[in-house]
Design goal:
The protein contains six helices and two strands, in the order ααααββαα. A hairpin with a 7-residue loop joins β1 (95-99) and β2 (107-111). It has 159 residues and is mainly α. InterPro entries: HTH_MarR-typ, MarR/SlyA-like, WH-like_DNA-bd_sf, WH_DNA-bd_sf. GO terms for molecular function: DNA binding.
Length: 159
Amino acid sequence: MLSSKTQEVSISDDEVDTSYLKTLVGYNARRAALTVISLFVPRMAEFGLRPVDFSILSVIGHNPGITSKQLCRVLDLLPPNLVGKIGALEQAGVLERRPHPSDGRALGLHLTASGYERMRLAERAAFELEAEAAGALTAAERRTLIRLLQKVYEGQADS
């Protein structure tokens, strides 16, 4: 139990005890995410993409005709948040809406030729920066880490 009276101790940064935090999945996942995001954000800026925009372009590019409802579900986005993103990407000329072939009420989302090219270049940059960020991992360790992280967030979908 901690005392309400604390003593001030002078310690250097390399002496700070974070051992408890390092036992927590959330702490470690967040630290890893911050490392990747610190590389991701400036590299995606050259393509005019923020992390969520990149995810949207990638999913649409690999799933032409996907609906907004499906996109919200797979990326765990709220519909009002997606509406503005889709509108901005459409105005930028990288995305277009077309009538859905099997659901007359829905519109399918498709990348334009320039949208597909932007996605392709951004995905290549993402692959390179992830290799840099995870350079201390072997290929097998990287695959294991991704599988384990997916197990954490996909397991929550069933709750």
